[in-house]
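lol ok so funny story. i was supposed to be doing the assay writeup but got distracted and ended up predicting the structure for this chain instead. priorities right. anyway since i did it might as well share w the group, maybe its usefull for someone
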Amino acid sequence: MWGNSEGNIFNPFKKATKSKPETLSQEEIWMSSEMCDVCGHSYPIEYIHRVPCIGGRSGSEYIVRCCPNCNPQTIIPIL
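and the output, tada:
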């Protein structure tokens, strides 16, 4: 018969249903992205790198969030 080990039965006479693609709300998109501290653009979390650095003027320790397109060394003298 038509079936598999999980007990699901394939019915060839049943109409195929198209599932709706999952859409994300604007709030969910914002929650899954972070802003690059160098350029100010938002990117998905997996593309943002965190770079520890010491500020040029104050000598304070900072964690700079940086996208793949930017160089974190450009913002360090401003800190």
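The mean pLDDT is 77. The first strand starts at residue 33 and ends at 35.
back to the writeup now i swear
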